[in-house]
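In this supplementary section we document a worked example of the pipeline. Step one takes a protein sequence of length 160 as its only input; no multiple sequence alignment statistics are reported here. Step two produces a three-dimensional model, which step three serialises into structure tokens for compact storage. The input and output of this example are shown verbatim.
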Amino acid sequence: MIRGKAWVFGDDVDTDVIIPGPYLRTKNIRELALHAMEGLDPEFAKKVSPGDVIVAGKNFGCGSSREQAPLALREAGVACVVAKSFARIFYRNAINVGLAVMEADVSCREGEVVEVDLSRGTVTAGERTFSGTRLPEFLLAILQDGGLVAHRRKEKEGAL
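The serialised model returned by step three reads:
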């Protein structure tokens, strides 16, 4: 269960606003996190708290396939992104780096506390519960292990 404050964004949030191009050359993940969502809210990285949830509209993560976008969000403290729909490459990159994602059409206010249950595919905001797309077990396992690399390491160690 993920429980955090909602950060509400609209449709077509592209990777250029999630992590602007000038910061892509850095290998420092903390530096990336300092610029998360800078294209839409220059103060986002200073205001977001660990465990918070982004709630967005359609086509979240469209644009270039930069893996730094979900990585910057995760490192900034975002625990989950809930959107009506995702750009497919962002969706898979998020899972690969250990950032939880769920497709659901959620209506809530900025700052409202939301609860995301990935295993049930539900999002609760106040007294309202929204049904979303439940993640398959294999994707939940990747997320629980901290991303694809950590998951593969765990699988490899278990095979010995």
